[in-house]
Amino acid sequence: MEVQNIPLLTQYKMGEFDLSHRIVLAPLTRFRSFNNVAQPHAAVYYSQRATKGGLLIAEATGVSDIAQGYRDTPGIWTREQVEAWKPIVDAVHEKGSIFFLQLWHVGRAITNGFLPNGQTPISSTATGISPGVDGQEWAPPRRLTKDEIPGVVNDFRIAARNAIEAGFDGVELHGANGYLIEQFLKDYVNDRTDEYGGSLENRCRFALEIVEAVANEIGSNRVGIRLSPYTNLSESIDSDPDALGLYMANALNKFDICYLHVIEPRVYGTVVLQGPEDEVPHKLLPMRKAFKNTFIAAGGYDRRKGNLAISKNYADLIAYGRSFLANPDLVRRFEVDAPLNKYNRSTFYIPDPVVGYTDYPFLEEPN
Ligand SMILES: Cc1cc2nc3c(=O)[nH]c(=O)nc-3n(C[C@H](O)[C@H](O)[C@H](O)COP(=O)(O)O)c2cc1C
């Protein structure tokens, strides 16, 4: 589908992948993977949003049993979990989409008593998120020892291999939103004194070791990473996000990975902050210019802003979260400039396999 004059609907070559448009499904946790196993209803949900030559990024998926911080989020560390993803990936591929899986470790972003067998959450630090932040009572973490770090890197490597075995085209490392990788990246959280803390180079070491291990395992052309240097979710704050973002964009070039996906400063987790909207986004431009492969921008985009960002070469692709959640045919709606369904926040995270998940109406019901 090449539609003239709609920048979002122009073709794009992302490494070896031929995309027919620039509209990406952002990773969206849905709390519907009972007992950490992806469910058959996810095949309906993702294939509803699949288009020929589109890119979908599946929801954050745990790399180990202590990587999960919320109920009913999927994993990819057991055989059962890998097998469960296969029919979902097949359904998306039948529609002709490219499908990446987001790999996740929550680190210290876990509430009290959540982890199995009384385990203690891990982080770069032994300091927990302050009580009451985001309305939660967070569990105090323990600081990963230097000797334990290769084991966590290895969990990501194995999870990536499992994702490829399940049929995914690639993986996106979740380096955003206050989770484990970001707990190393940001200086308000990372208080280490070894070579994984302190300088920018040291704080980025853990993330880059994971990138390298995963790229070696499945091929750099199958690896993306998501970063949010500017957002402060779960007290994950950096004193110089410009420098952090730019350092990572440059450092990632060494590994020649497929894409860098960055969240705009206006986003706080699942909420886009009110206030003066930057008409022409600009904050991510230095990262976009520094990174040599595909650049994806996300957060607070609508059709008009997405078209503007593509036409100004601010990004190669735009990821849409809440609007794609509520509009399974978002690509078609953007093509004909149709009104959008409104998302219903109260059903984002309910366990229902249909309500708020696969029941948002299409413009024209699919055959
Ligand atoms: C229900 C919901 C679940 C989300 N889950 C994830 C997730 O699993 N991984 C992630 O990186 N971001 C997640 N996000 C953030 C979105 O990917 C996106 O960055 C955010 O919604 C802002 O984009 P938007 O304005 O297009 O919605 C989630 C957002 C929502 C609304």
UniProtKB/TrEMBL annotation:
Gene Ontology MF, one: oxidoreductase activity
Domain NADH:flavin oxidoreductase/NADH oxidase N-terminal: 13-340
One Pfam family hit: Oxidored_FMN
Taxonomic superkingdom: Eukaryota
Necessary cofactors: FMN
Family annotation (InterPro entries): Aldolase_TIM (IPR013785), OxRdtase_FMN_N (IPR001155), Oye-like (IPR045247)
Reactions catalysed, as given in the entry: (1S,2S)-OPC-8 + NADP(+) = (9S,13S,15Z)-12-oxophyto-10,15-dienoate + NADPH + H(+)
Record's keyword terms, sorted: Flavoprotein, FMN, NADP, Oxidoreductase
E.C. number(s) listed in UniProt: 1.3.1.42
Pathway(s) served: Lipid metabolism; oxylipin biosynthesis
Family: Belongs to the NADH:flavin oxidoreductase/NADH oxidase family.
Name of the protein this chain belongs to: 12-oxophytodienoate reductase
